[in-house]
Design a protein that fits this description.
The two termini are about 15 Å apart. This protein has a two-stranded antiparallel ribbon with strand order 1-2. α2 packs across α3, α4 crosses α7 and α5 packs across α6. By secondary structure, the chain is mainly α. The protein has 2 domains: about 70 residues, EF-hand (Recoverin, domain 1, Orthogonal Bundle); about 55 residues, EF-hand (Recoverin, domain 1), CATH 1.10.238.10. Helix content is about 60%, strand content about 5%.
């Protein structure tokens, strides 16, 4: 799910009570508290400090977008790692082999010959070792 500008603006407007275009630690603490997360001001100040790119002590729209897009990338990477583990060969950890690909596809209801699995791997096998590493797998999935 790709967020668009108005989604970010909606989030910003929710947290930015005084409408100055920035989220202060106090605004963030109040709104997070309303969501059920009771945070002490020091925790919120540390969070704002981590997100604050210009050092003004507040989270700007740019900071908010960067944080939300970064979280999305982290989530995508976790999903890719989980998917890779499903196809990973139990005897050659860290790689997808033609046999492990054939086995997993079979479990998913797609019957492929070992030749077809080798061809699939060959298409994304950058170093020509006949295996897919996690790096090669992530390139294939993008």
């Amino acid at each position: 799910m790709k967020l668009v500008k108005r989604d970010y603006e909606r989030v910003m407007k929710y947290f930015d009570e005084d409408g100055d275009g920035k989220i202060s630690p106090w605004e963030l603490r109040k709104k997070l508290g309303m969501m059920g997360d009771e945070l002490v001001l020091k925790e919120v100040e540390l969070l704002v400090q981590e997100l604050d790119s210009d050092g003004d002590g507040c989270v700007s729209m740019e900071d908010l977008v960067k944080m939300m897009e970064g979280a999305g990338e982290e989530e995508k990477m976790r999903d890719l790692e989980e998917a890779f583990e499903m196809y990973n060969d139990s005897e050659m950890l860290g790689f997808i082999t033609p046999n492990s690909l054939q086995t997993m596809l079979g479990r998913l209801g797609e019957s492929k010959s070992i030749h077809q699995c080798k061809a699939m791997i060959h298409h994304f096998d950058l170093n020509g070792d006949g295996l897919l590493s996690f790096h090669e797998f992530t390139l294939m999935m993008h």
